[in-house]
Amino acid sequence: MKSKVSVIVINWNGKHHLERCLSSVLQQTYPNFEVVLVDNASTDGSVEFVRERFPGVRIIRNEENLGFAAGDNVAIRTTRGDYVATLNNDTQVDPRWLEELVSAAEADPKVGMCASKMLFLHQPDIINSTGISLDKAGIAWDRRGGEPDQDTGIEPIEVFGPCAGAALYRRRMLEEVGLFDQDFFAYLEDVDLAWRARLMGWRCLYVPTARVYHIHSATGLEGSPFKNHLLGRNKVWTIIKNYPSPELFLFLPLITLYDLGAVLYALIIRGDVNPLSGRIAGLRGLVRFLRKRGEIQRKRVIPFCALARYLNPIENPIKVLRRYRHLQNAASEAFGEED
Hints:
Blueprint: E1 5-11, H1 15-25, E2 33-40, H2 46-53, E3 58-62, H3 67-78, E4 83-88, E5 91-93, H4 97-106, E6 111-120, E7 123-129, E8 132-134, E9 140-142, E10 157-158, E11 166-170, H5 171-177, H6 189-199, E12 203-214, H7 225-242, H8 247-268, H9 274-284, H10 286-299, H11 304-307, H12 317-322, H13 325-338
Parallel strand pairs: 1-2, 1-4, 2-3, 6-12
Antiparallel strand pairs: 4-11, 5-12, 6-7, 6-11, 8-9, 10-12
Helix pairs in contact: 1-2, 6-7, 7-9, 7-10
C-alpha cells in the first residue's frame, strides 16, 4: 500500500478560500491521503461551511487562534500519516501535487522535506516560491520569488528547505527534530524547522512538477504591522536557535549590519516601527531561546561547511530590497480582483 499522507490546512476566517482549496485537494491522483482542517476560532462560518460542503474533511476546531505553528502541531499529533503535507488555505493545488511530492520523497529515505513550485494564483506565470533561500547573513526569502515561470526542468533539486505554505514533511523526521516552534505563532516557523532538520542531516528537495497556486499572505496581509512585527521577532529567534558556532560569531557583524539596515529602512522610508518592535521582542526572549539553542546544537551532526553549500551568497542591500518588491504587486493584484 502507498504511504499515507495527512494533509493539514490551517484556517482563520478564510471561508471564502475554502471551496477552491479543499476541492482541489480532494481531486488528488494520489490514492492514500486524509484531509484535516484546523480552524483557529473562525467567526465567519468556516466550520459550518466545511461540514456541509466537505463532509469527508476532518475538522479540528480550536477555541482560540493558535497561529500557524501551533495549529499545525495540533493536527500533526492527532494524525498518523507517514508524511505530513502542510497547506495554506489560500491555495489551489494541481491534481498531481501530492503524487509528485511523495514520489520525490520516497526516492531517498534521507529526504525529510519537499518543496512545491508555488505560483501566484492571479499571476500564474510568476513564481511565488520554490522553497527557502537563506544566506550567511541569516536572511531568508522565497527562492526565485518574482521570477517568470520559464523553468522547463522536471527533476527535483536540493534546496535549503520548503515553504510550509505547500510542503511535505516525513513524519520520521518530525519525530526526530521536533515540530514547528509554537512560540513563533506564524512566519519563519518553516525556516526554523528547516534549519533544525538540516543540522541533523536531513535533506530537502524542490519538486518542480508539484504545482500550487497561491494568493500569498491573504490572512496575515503583506506589509501589515502584525506580520512585520512577527517577522522581526522570529528572525532574531531563528538565528539565536540555529546558526552554528563559531560561524555565528564570525558572521555576527554582517548579520547585525544587514539587520540594522533593514530596521532603519523601515523606520525612515516607510515610517514602520514594527520591524524594530519585533526585534526588541525577540531579544527579550534571549535567555529562553539560548536554552533552546543548547538543545539543538547538541544534536547537530552536520558541520557548517557541509551546510554552506546550500546557502546563498550575501548580496548588496539594494538587491536584498528587490527580493520583496514583487510581493506588494502580487497582493495588490490579488485583492483588487477579489473586491
